[in-house]
């Protein structure tokens, strides 16, 4: 779902602005979670999960672009670091909480997911000021050109390959580790275990960002 949603919505955010895409993505994510909560068979759960994957990735490209729109270049690394820090603060809290909520019922977890998405959409609707898109590349080129443009950038494609390899390693934790812990009777500890990742990022991210901001980004990525 995210593979389809990410590139498509990145182009939409360039064409129509960040704010409408962000708000629309969050509201569609809330709807998708409520649909998932009603599913009871493997085929319908799979279809609803595909929808959740698509919708929950709609806001990511637009949010990244929105930060770049309003933050001067010399401060962007710190701004992206703070954004990542905030995401992981929420992730650590949610992962630690999810195990207890799941015992009450999956519908409670999905319902809270939907509620937080709606609240975030309302906050952005009230507080966010979108940067005007007039005169941008979106005005000069068609939507197809916006969608395919990054594929013509060699450095961009290299970054995509690095991101793909990183994601393949990282998501072993959500598949293989979860299955192994269930076999060992430790599935109740899966949420708190995942929270360790978020807690470490919350504790270390601000300091590491300050330490590395004077170093070339390519060297930090390689390390």
Features:
223 residues; globular; mainly alpha
What does this structure look like?
By secondary structure, the chain is mainly α. The protein has helices at 2-16, 18-37, 42-56, 59-70, 76-104, 106-127, 137-140, 143-148, 154-170, 172-183, 190-212, 217-222. Helix 1 (2-16) packs antiparallel against helix 2 and helix 2 runs antiparallel to helix 6. The longest helix is centred in the middle third of the chain and has 29 residues, at 76-104. The model has no long low-confidence stretch (mean pLDDT 84).
Task: Summarize this entry quickly.
The protein has helices spanning 2-16, 18-37, 42-56, 59-70, 76-104, 106-127, 137-140, 143-148, 154-170, 172-183, 190-212, 217-222. With 223 residues, it is mainly alpha-helical. The longest helix has 29 residues, at 76-104.
